[in-house]
Amino acid sequence: MAQGPPLVMVVDDDAAVRDALQFVLRLEGVDVRTHADGPALLANLDLPGAVCLILKENLPVMGGCEVLRHVRARNLSPWTILLTGAVTPALRMRAEEAGVWLILEKPIMDNRLVDAVLGVLRKGEPPELRKTH
Asked: Is 29 helix (H, G, I), strand (E, B) or coil?
């Protein structure tokens, strides 16, 4: 059976961010599912097939690190990129404990996010970008 395109899931309460990421990644041949909050992601039956998660930390119902803890509790280990407005020592600690691979501060003005996702998907390993936590 032929394998489909890699699956990336995006969780951000800003529809414009979700739509932009979905558009750019789909141009690269990536299957993208978007969600406005953590519970919607956790309810998605395709979650076990996700290779990469892009989670916003400051979400209404539960933050990105908390969402990731729920994902990890299901014995799933997708590469995870956390988006935040400000990286603090406390956030770095929470992110590391949850298993976040990369933290990026918004606004993201270059291609770091897309490059990180594509590097993981194409190589099966982290690209040259290193963890920021």
From this structure: coil
Structure tokens at 125: 């390993």
Q: Which domain holds residue 28?
A: 7-123
CATH number of the domain to which 85 belongs = 3.40.50.2300
Dump pLDDT digits (tens) for 22-56. 999 999 999 999 999 999 999 999 999 999 999 99
Sign, CA dihedral 52-94-36-105, equals: negative
Residue 133 domain-assigned? no
In a domain, 129, yes or no: no
Residue 63 identity: G
Burial of 45 (0-12, 13-18, 19+ CB in 10 A): exposed
The predicted pLDDT at position 125 comes to 55
Domain count, the chain: 1
Task: Please tell me the pTM assigned to this model.
Answer: 0.89
